[in-house]
Specification:
Order of helices and strands: HEEHHHHHEEEEEEEEEEHEHEH
Largest sheet: 6 strands, mixed
Shape: globular
Distance between the termini: 28 Å
Number of helices: 9
Radius of gyration: 19 Å
Number of strands: 14
CATH architecture: Sandwich
Strand content: 25-35%
Number of domains: 1
Strand order of the largest sheet: 9-6-11-4-3-14
CATH superfamily: Jelly Rolls
């Protein structure tokens, strides 16, 4: 057990949960994660500098305890999915807790998280993740990004973190049927923090490049460069197969008001 998890259990207590069949499934990490996120005083600062927030470290540790039973999801139902789905576990003004389910072979295209941080954990399956970090600001001809990570994450891997500056653009491809548990801070909010989708293009350096020669040759930027072109909203709505929302049947966290 990590120090962060032990700390939370000491103060929150040995909360227990039951699935829809009335079976005791033990310690309730969903409640602990909610309590931890709800304890963050300065959500703006924490979302910009997540590595400086001890509560986010605790959430990352606790997410390793989340199971399909906690989420009210049967493995057989995940394996039979034909379309991507999403569920809302909890929604507040400061953070969201959500689930994404992706059938084998399907892809959630490259998208961003404007001025947000996101903690993600694969609960089931093998997920190929490709993430990018911005090298230049957005221009009419797109945005220059560097490849931050390209790997396969599985349920035995630790939760990972993206921030406004590192890995903020990412793409998911399900190598097997996948369930992903996400904590977003702050949540998406249109029009201030919309979710934008992008087409990934090869990077061609020219006189119009927004990245300086020095930055392109800096040791920290030795990873491949790409160009991201934003996909118009009308195209996203009309042509892209994106997750649709379904009802959440797992453990719902008790809010602070109900605990008092």
């Amino acid at each position: 057990m990590s120090v962060q998890t032990a700390f939370l259990r000491y103060f929150i207590g040995p909360l227990r949960s039951f699935n829809g069949r009335g079976t005791d499934i033990g310690h309730n990490p969903i409640q602990s994660i909610y309590q931890c996120m709800d304890s963050i005083v300065d959500i703006q600062r924490s979302s910009q500098c997540p590595m400086d927030c001890p509560y986010i470290d605790s959430v990352r540790a606790l997410m390793s305890e989340v199971t399909l039973d906690h989420l009210g999801i049967d493995l057989s139902s995940v394996q039979q999915l034909r379309h991507m789905q999403c569920m809302t576990v909890a929604h507040t003004a400061n953070f969201d807790i959500a689930i994404f389910m992706i059938p084998k072979g399907q892809r959630l295209p490259v998208h961003d998280h404007p001025n947000m941080s996101v903690i993600s954990k694969v609960v089931e399956g093998a997920l190929r993740v490709r993430s990018f970090s911005s090298v230049s600001s957005a221009k009419e001809d797109g945005r220059t990004v560097r490849l931050e990570e390209f790997c396969t994450k599985q349920s035995n891997d630790a939760a990972w973190l993206l921030s406004p500056t590192v890995g903020n653009f990412h793409e998911f491809t399900a190598e097997s049927a996948c369930v992903i548990f996400d904590v977003l801070l702050p949540p998406y909010e249109y029009p201030h923090r919309p979710c934008n989708y992008y087409e990934v293009m090869d990077y061609h350096r020219d006189e119009h490049s927004a990245a300086s020669d020095d930055s392109l040759h800096d040791d920290s930027l030795r990873k491949p460069l790409f160009r991201l072109n934003m996909i118009p909203e009308r195209t996203v709505a009309r042509e892209m197969d994106l997750p649709y929302s379904v009802g959440y049947k797992g453990i719902r966290p008790i809010t602070r008001n109900r605990l008092s």
